[in-house]
Amino acid sequence: MIYEALSCVTEDINNNLKRKLQINEDKMILSGIVNQDGSIAAPGENKMLVTLVNVEKETARTSVSHTGAGTYNTASPMVCINLYVLFSAYFSSNNYAQALRFLSYTIAFFQSKNTFTAQNTPTLDNGISKLSFELESLGPERQNNMWATLGTKYMPSVLYKVRMLTFDDSIIKEYRPAIAGTAGDTLPAR
Which domain of life, per UniProt (predicted)? Predict the structure, then answer.
């Protein structure tokens, strides 16, 4: 459900940018910043990276509703989580002005649409009733710690707290990974 939430938001921002800036390419990509080996994870430059940097349990569960199919399982209660999502401008050094522009576009987008529901975002997954984006202010020390933990140098960025996703075991579906090889290959019998 985390992937579904973040990919939907990324797509929505891209559609907004394409419409307002009259561009054809996706400027917002859902990606880590660096790979485990320290290499850059983002494909290409001059993009805004959407990166999950933390998951936190929601402690104040005042009103939780389930909009998906099925009923709650009282034997295994739900858990509600908040996501911390970093929007960072991964632009080449000679394109710093563009990095700041796209960072501004991102902030402006969330000022005009800080809540995602099925009514205003038809592509939102059925298991998600609402996502609310809140701008997080990090002081210099916390920001420095975050970038050090991410293993990379600072980029112009903004952090949002996304409230809240509700999990129970109803989201687990059968997983079928893609099969490598040609159409003529067969799998061994089990």
Answer: Bacteria
Does residue 50 contact residue 88 with C-beta atoms inside 8 Å?
A: no
Model pLDDT for residues 127-174, shown as the tens digit of each residue: 898 999 999 999 999 999 999 999 999 999 999 999 988 876 665 555
The structure's pTM equals: 0.81
Of 83, 61, 89, 167, nearest in space to 133 by CA: 83
Residue 138 falls inside a structural domain: yes
User: Quick check: 99 and 47 in contact, CB under 8 A?
Assistant: no
Return phi, psi of residue 52, to 5°.
Answer: -75, 120
Q: Which domain holds residue 55?
A: 2-65+78-169
